[in-house]
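<instruction>
Derive structure tokens from the sequence
<entry> Chain with its tokenised backbone below:
===
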Amino acid sequence: QVQLVESGGGLVQAGGSLRLSCAASGRTFSANSMGWFRQVPGKEREFVATIRTDTGTTYYTDSVKGRFTISRDNAKNTVYLQMNSLKPEDTAVYYCAAATSVLSTVTMRMLTRYYYWGQGTQVTVSS
């Protein structure tokens, strides 16, 4: 089992920044990739970014490229999502997730490939 706890959400004005953290505990060595997803009411949860825990390779959805940065601190079992130049459309509940299998550039965007999920943290960007 892997437990994930997100923190760092909040209210920020457009153009501002937030850093989300995801602390993992339990069988953390089984997590091959860590990802961030987000969801707004009435819409499907969508992929934001993912990072391979072994190589540090990162992938982003197009809408956040150049603004968001995913990183990890393996010693602390923590994954971060630095969000800059935030826009009102970034408003959502952000979820951290862990995958135990190797993901391709296609499967990394699929919710079903991530076995463990955090409880989510709200990010609200005001205009």
Q: What stands out?
A: The chain is about 0% helix and 50% strand. Residues 99 and 115 are 6 Å apart (CA to CA). The first strand starts at residue 2 and ends at 7. The chain has a mean pLDDT of 94.
